[in-house]
Description:
Elements: E1 2-6, E2 9-17, E3 22-29, H1 34-48, E4 54-56, H2 60-69, E5 77-79, H3 81-107, H4 109-124, H5 128-140, H6 148-163, H7 179-200, H8 205-223, H9 225-247, H10 265-290, H11 297-313, E6 321-323, E7 330-332, H12 338-355, H13 361-366, H14 370-374, H15 380-387, H16 393-406, H17 423-429, H18 432-443
Helix pairs in contact: 1-2, 3-9, 3-11, 4-6, 4-8, 5-6, 6-7, 6-8, 7-8, 10-11
Amino acid sequence: MDATGENGRGTLFVAYAGWRHWVLGAWKLPTECAEAILPHLQGVVADFGVPCAVVRDLGRAVTEAVTTALAGRSVPVLSCQFHLLRDVGTDLLKDDHGRLQALFRELGVRTKLRKLARDLGRRLAPRVPALRMDVQQWIEQEGRFPAGPAGLAVIRAMAQWALDYQDDTRHQGFPFDRPYLALYRRCDLLWRATTTLARRAPADAALRSALDRLRETLRPLQADAEAHQLVRRLEARADLLDRLRAVLRLDADADLGSRESDRSPEALAKSLAETQRAFRSFVRDLRHHRATPRLRREERAMLDVVLSHLDRHGATLWGHVLASPQPGTIRVVARTNNILEQFFHRLKHGERRRSGRKVLTHDFEVIPPGAALAANLSRPDYVTLVCGSIDDLPARFSAIDAAADRTALPDPAPELTRAALPLGDRRLVRRPAFRQRLLAACSRR
Length: 445
């Protein structure tokens, strides 16, 4: 189970059958709170039976709703290990990474680099295409720094390389990608490279001016003591997060969840047992290191962040191997909600292709939850059970419409308004007449 939305709006909560890849239920929620989630979970249990297991995120609302819905039943309720990693990484890195981003903004490094690359591009146009060959030659062959326009093209390429720091990320989002740490590393490398090149560059006034301009852009960052401290802390904390991720075998190269279906349950169970042993050993090492006398305060704080998460969620991280109804066989529950996350990705990708919009804030406020259920029609076993074949689908809908004429539909559930400004209220208060009414009230005596 998980929820998605866009910019905090249009929350779509979905219960998903991980083995069958069916959407069991989809509902629009005013906000992700336990009292909004609970009746839907109870409805899923009533319609489909008690689940074999539940994989959820670490949010308090979902945890409370699941606990209440399954009270008195011995159902494994498992925490998504990917959500655990993301929460640990966010707590470890968010403050320092945000401060490093603010420093880049205060020093204007990216703005000045973009301006330098743009100014040199305009100066060298229309020779830029030909000068790319000179830059390529400088990259591939060791030799003196080129003079004239070729040297200016190399300096332009250096500024562009620093601005292309996103290429050092895996496009997995924060905290697994640390873009401003990547930008700092490129700027630091560029500063050291230009320090050496400045001593060997030709004595060309225009070339010297451009190289000095590049160095002056990078100098404030090199001289900032706070930036150095932030980077040291970020690198230590990022290393701890990456080690935890590697122990859980949810590293950057893992196809999180999708490849597990290609392996036998026995192979998955064996892999899970190995992962669990490595994880327990890693946690023991962390606790032992935390107990080291005279541990530096920063290192102690870093370990406390990780251990507090593991203490809170450790009991729900394991228990994925279940006995199958067939004697002597097992079934394995996914360790993450990534199957559902991938479903959300496909849903949003399809909506972007349909609408042509990148930002789906409005779309997710108005899209009906049944759009998620319609994805079940791509599952052959679902289609067979529900309507036999896709060709029979129009007749099935016609039968529903005919029955609706004779049978009163149930009253809709009352709207649970928890969001501060849901779409219906926003349309109301944004009417010009609302402001006029307030102005009129102010003018009365």
